[in-house]
Amino acid sequence: MHKPFSTEPTGPAETIESIGTMGIAELTETEPIATTGIIEPTETEPTGTTGITQIIETYSPEETFALGEQIGGQCRPGQIYTLTGDLGVGKTVFTQGVARGLGITETVSSPTFTILQVYEGGRLPFYHFDVYRIADVEEMEEIGYEDCFYGEGVCLIEWADLIREILPEHYCRIVIEKEPEKGFDYRRIRIEER
Q1: In angstroms, rounded to a whole number, what is the distance separating the alpha carbons of residues 122 and 119?
Q2: Which CATH architecture has domain 23-193?
Q3: pTM of the shown model
Q4: What is the distance between the alpha carbons of residues 79 and 68, in angstroms, rounded to a whole number?
Q5: 15, 29, 60, 99: which has the fewest Cβ within 10 Å?
Q6: Is the alpha carbon torsion for 1, 74, 159, 94 positive or negative?
Q7: Quick one: average pLDDT of 110-128?
């Protein structure tokens, strides 16, 4: 069952905290829509990794954006997030939310043909990788990935399974999945600390 946004914390300790009163911009970059509250995990499960896997369900692009925004609001220097999901599942919408949570106001788009987009207008540098089109991990070395991975910014890497051998030991893996039987805009988002 879809839980409406809450403005009061009601969930378990592993609930993603609210970032406050930032508005969500429409994906078409028109006017802002409603302010979000807390998005709570619908499930948690222990994993063989370093933490708990959280399962969060969203029912619209705005909710997927809001979840990214909450995560962006909590980012700390040096954090790495990997983002996996089929084409058209909402990875860019989620990433736009993370950027907004970091205080970045410029337009964020998928860097498919450039591999890396750097945004420095927020509270931390944001390194957005899309490695879908790389032919070899050596291409990551050519663009200086280590400066991003081990620097003072936040990295978000789409299609990170393609460069698994160069990922650091600890990162946060995010998987976005569609389930059409639950609605066109339904997304099941799994967040796992590794």
Answers
A1: 7
A2: 3-Layer(aba) Sandwich (3.40)
A3: 0.76
A4: 14
A5: 29
A6: positive
A7: 92
